[in-house]
Structures are given as structure tokens and as C-alpha cells.
Amino acid sequence: MSMNIDLSSILTKIANDSSFVDGSEGKFSKGETLFISGTSAKGDMVTLKDSSGDSYNVSAQELKGYLTDEELQALMSNSATVQVGSTEATSATSEVSEVGEVEATTEVGETAEVGTTSAAIQDEIDKLEAQRLANLDSMETLKDQIEDLKDEIQESINAAIQEMEEIEEEQKKKAQEVVDEELQKFKNSNGEMTQDEFNANVQSQLAAINPSMGTVVAELLTANTKTSLMSNLLGQLDAKIATDSQLCSQIDAKNVELDSAIAAEEAEKAAQEAQEQAAQSTTSSNSCDPIGFQMEADSDGDGTVGTVQFDFFYDSDGDGKINSMDDFVGAKADKAGEDGWSEIENLDGVGGEADGVITSDELSNAGMKVMVTDENGEQYAMSMDEFEAQYGEIEINSQDVEAGEEGFASGVGPKNFDADAGNELLSSFNLSVGDEDLTGYQTKDTEDWLVNNYSDVMDLDSIAAEGVDVSGVAAGEAAGAVDGAGSAEAAQYVEFAKEYRDNVLPKLEAQINEAYAELGLSQDAITAFKNMATAQADIEGQQIAEDLKAQEEEKAQQLYEEAQAAKEAEEAAAAEEEAAAEEAAEEDADVSEEDTPDFDDLEVGETVDTTESTSELEDLLGEEEA
Predict the structure, then answer these.
(1) Are 375 and 365 in contact (CB under 8 A)?
(2) What is the SS3 assignment for 57?
């Protein structure tokens, strides 16, 4: 069981403790924003990382003044959840509390084995993405608060300077004496006098010297508190930027895991389908039947005309890639032991009238696209609408055009056709593109040849999951590879934090220091006021962190639920559409059965009014004559 340790103020104190900083070799600079990044294997050392990414080792002994023995033991044993602002990360492991039911404890950038199915992994991704978006909202809130603080600090400084102009030098000297005297009383009280009591005593005595004197110190103290709060909020912003990077890494890793799960599920499905097909038919094939055509064209508009090849394929998921060998038109029919050309013939009338001509609209309605191999050898997908806009309407009119028939070229197969590789030209067909008459081809090609010639436009992982050998082709990087980088949206906050930390905050602090010096206060008095301001800022900063954490959890839960609702609505719509299609198919089958006459009692000479049962009638009449 892990122990929660709030390190927001503890790390701030360590960063300002002179025993850790100021010239010590291997130590960080004073005032740095620090994070816990790990612990040693022996449990005797903690690694701190600053906002620049530099790491420093601090011994367990050095931390004893800041943590209880129980907290220190939990931290060293990697069972502690340390919190900086509203960001959580463990010393060697990170407990990312995902919205909903899933909770994973993982190395930074890695993911837990919460679910192995693609649906379960996608659910985890949705939750992590909801966290990331909620975290970005918190960044924007912090940015707004920091910008508002800048204006408020400047107003306090300006007010202090204006009041100080009315104070005489002699009064400033008296003020310094009063503050130094009260400060000594505060030190001598050994903790019995509180900071609030010290401040009240100083304010009342300064007001007695000059009413404006108390106002000046109050304004400077307010400005000090707000600069400390700004530094605190910048630390919280840094922590959220680190969280964004961590979440992005986990999402990337989950996406890689998702790809593997989908590939495994598709492979299992493909194996099952293959087994079912083998049971239904003794015909099997390792070949695919691309159907397409080629024409002389200038596909890229550079003025150079060359042979451009167009192969019909099904783009089931709309990604413009071949995700299965069955995506090649003709392949499914071929595997079922049928002529691949039947897949083209069956398109006549899809979304329109069956008239013996297959148009661009019918091809598009069937979810078909063309894979282009242009005159430069580049390959890419085109929708039928895109093709028609560039080249003209497609009309496929007939099959089995005789080679050399007048008016048409002979079918020669694709321009990268290789008969020596076992490819076979099965037939040609007649088509037109715009006003140009062309001859298309139907080929039967081996899978390895297709992989080698279409690998640039294939999802090789999906193809390999079908049992196709893609070892001869160099696969690209896996989608969503973990690189440790944060999201693009977080980049603006990185720049914002750097600008405020390097420029804005130092300039404001310099103005406050100049005002203190002008007032004539001693360095001890200035340090005391700044310590008071820092203590108050820590309280305010912790409250802001708690508020943001609560808002993040609520926002992430809301985003996750919205994503789930949208997904369920989409699935319901798809199921409804599928059910409607099945119902329509059943109705068509019922109508067909009703319209089919019963030939069992048909007498010679009797006629039936049907155009769909000619072959059955001929068979029956033949039997009667016999």
C-alpha cells in the first residue's frame, strides 16, 4: 500500500536551503524548481531533477530533516506517491490514477497489463487522453493566474513607490530602527511570537512614524507574497508539463500495444475465416486478382506524359492503404474458387440501375478506390470522385475483349507485370475514361510479388497478421512510437514558463528589492519579510493545487464519459444499420421465394409468367420429354 507524501513545500525548502546549494559541487542552483525522479537500488539516495533537466543526488540522511522516518522509508522503498502541486509521480514508479476503474502502476513511459484485448486497451487510451486534456486545461488556468499576478505585483510596487515619495529621510531611518528592534524581539521570543504578531507590531509602529510608511511595507509585503506565489505556480506549471510528457509517452506506448492487439485479433480472425473457407471448398489459392487498367497521362501536372497504372481496391477503413490481400479486387472471389471478375460484375446496379455498364458512381458506392502507380513510380490512392475530377467518368462495358479488336488496344496487364514471377494475365475488358476508349486487365499474382510491388501503400503489420510473408520488405516505424516528447499543445506553456522564470519574475523581484533598499530597511528585516511572504505563498499555492486537482479529476471523468457515449452511439448506429441491411436481405429472399413457381406439378404445355426461372423450366421440360 502506498503512502501519499505532499512534497510541494518540502521541495521548495530544499531548493532554498543553503546546505544543498550555493557553490557546492554537484548541487543545483538556489531557488530551482525540483522534482523527485528516482531512488537508488540500495535505498540510500534520492535523485532530484531541476527544471533544466539536470539531476542531483541527495542522501537519505540529508532528507531526514524534511521527512518523517515513515515517509522516508516509503519513499526509499518505492511505495510512496509524491505530489508536487497537482502532479503525482513515484520515485521509481508512477501511479497514474486513471479515471474510472482502471489504475496502473508503471515505469514512466511504460504501461500496465490492465487489458489485453484491443477494446480494453482503447478504453485505457481514452482515459489517459481524458487526463491529458484535463491537464492541459489546468495549464491554461495556471497561465492565466500567473499573468494576473504579474499585473497585481506591478500595481503593488507602483503604489509603494508612490507612497514612499512622501516619506522624509529622517522618517526612513526611524522606520529602520523600529523594524530592526521588532525583528530582534521576534528572534528572542524563540517562537512564542508569531509572524503575524511581528507584522502587526511593525505596521502599528510604522504608522505612528508616518501613515504612509505602513502602507509602503504592506504593499511590498503583498508584492513579495505574490512573486513567491508566482514562483510556486511556475513550479506547478512545470510539473504539469512533465505530466503531459508522461501521459503522451503512456498513450504512445498504449497505441503500440493496441496495434499489436489488433494485429493479433485480425490474425486470429483471418485464421478462423481461412479454416471456414477450407471447410466449405476444396479450392484454395495464395494468389490475388488485381483488376485495373493503364493509360497515358500527366498525373502530376509537370508536363511529362507517361504510363499511369490504376488498380481497383476496396478501402474498407478509409485510410488509403491496402490493409488486407482481400482489398485487391478479385481476391475474395479467387479464394472462393470463383472468377475474380464476378466482383466487378456484381457492382452493376449498386446504388443505381443495373444497365450493363458499371460507372464511377457504382464503383464509389461499393467503397472502391483506385491505387495509382504514376509515371514516376510513385503510388497513392485516389477516390473515384478524385479520379473523375482529374481524368473523367469511368464506364466499364464488357469483358473478354479480343486482343487486337478494332478500336481497342490489347490487354497487356499492369506495367510492372512480371510473367516470370508466376503472374498470369487472365483476361481483358472494355472500359472508357472520359472520351478515351481503353482496355483493362485482370491478372493473377502471387502474394509475395504483390507485397514487393505495393509495399509503400500497404499496412504491412495487418498484411503480416494474415499470414503473408512480408520479411523481404523493410517495415516502417510502428505507429505512435514512444519518444518521450510532450504534446504539441503543451509547447506553448514551456515557452511561457521559461519567459516568466527567466525574465518577468527576476525583473519584478529586482523592483521590489530596489524599493526595500530605498526604504532603508536592513537585510535582516528584508529577509524576514520575504520569509513571511514565502510562507503565505506556500499556503495559497497549495490551495490552488488542491483546487486544480479536483477540477482535473472532474473534467477528465466528464471527457471520458463523453467519449464513451459517442463511441456507444456510433456502435449503436452501426448495429442498427447492419440489422436494417439484414432485414432488407431477408425481405428480398422472401419475395424471391414467393415469386418462384412450383415446378413439381407442371404439365407439358403449361406456361408460367416468369423471367427468372428459365433454366429451371428448361430442365423440367427436358425431363418431361425424356
Answers:
(1) no
(2) strand
Mean pLDDT, rounded, of the chain: 76
Q: What is the DSSP string of 482-545?
A: ------GGGHHHHHHHHHIIIIIHHHHHHHHHHHHHHHT--HHHHHHHHHHHHHHHHHHHHHHH
All three cell numbers of 255? 497505441
Would you say residue 348 has pLDDT above 80?
A: yes
What span, in angstroms and rounded, lies between the C-alpha atoms of 269 and 158? 73
- DSSP-derived letter for residue 54 is -
Of 247, 252, 257, 269, residue with least CA distance to 117 = 257
Spatial distance between the Cα atoms of 453 and 418, rounded to a whole number of angstroms: 11
* pLDDT band with cut points at 50, 70 and 90 for residue 204: confident
Burial call 237-267: b when 16+ CB within 10 Å, e when fewer: bbbbbbbbbbbbbbbbbbbbbbbbbbbeebe
Amino acid at 456: D
CA angle 597, 599, 602 (to 5 degrees): 115
Could you read off the pLDDT of 43-67 as tens digits, one per residue?
A: 667 777 665 556 677 777 777 767 7
Three-class secondary structure of residue 459 per DSSP: coil
The Cα 320–Cα 309 span in angstroms is 16
Say how many C-beta atoms besides its own lie within 10 A of residue 173's C-beta. 12
C-alpha span between 352 and 331 (Å, rounded)? 25
Measured CA distances, 372 to 309, 312, 321, 362, 450 (Å):
6, 9, 11, 19, 14
Count of other CB atoms within 10 angstroms of residue 566: 10
Look at residues 224, 211, 227, 214 and name the one whose alpha carbon lies nearest to residue 179: 214
pLDDT, tens digit (0-9, with 9 covering 90-100), for 375-394 = 888 899 999 999 999 999 99
Residues whose CB is less than 8 angstroms from the CB of residue 372 and which lie 6 or more positions away in sequence, other chains included = 299, 308, 309, 310, 378, 379, 380, 381, 382
Using CA atoms, how far residue 427 sits from 202, 370, 411, in Å, is 102, 19, 7
Which three-class secondary structure state does DSSP give residue 607? coil
CB-based contacts of 70, cutoff 8 Å, min separation 6 = 3
Q: Does the pLDDT at position 558 exceed 50?
A: yes
Put simply, whether the predicted model's pTM sits higher than 0.70 gets the answer: no
Q: Region 103-121: what's the mean pLDDT?
A: 52
Amino acid at 248: C
Tell which residue, 34, 460, 441, has the closest CA to residue 232: 34
Find out whether 146 and 85 touch, Cβ atoms under 8 Å: no
- % of the chain with per-residue pLDDT over 70: 71
Greatest pairwise CA separation for the chain in angstroms: 138
Assess whether pLDDT exceeds 60 at residue 549: yes
The pLDDT of residue 206 is 77
Residue 96 is classified by DSSP as: E
Q: Phi-psi region for residue 31, left (φ > 0), alpha (ψ -120 to 50) or beta?
A: left
Confidence (pLDDT) at 402: 54
Q: Which helix (H) or strand (E) covers residue 242, if one does?
A: helix 211-280
Can you read off the three cell numbers belonging to residue 477? 516505424
Q: Is 367 helix (H, G, I), strand (E, B) or coil?
A: coil
How far apart CA 285 and CA 272 sit, in angstroms, is 16
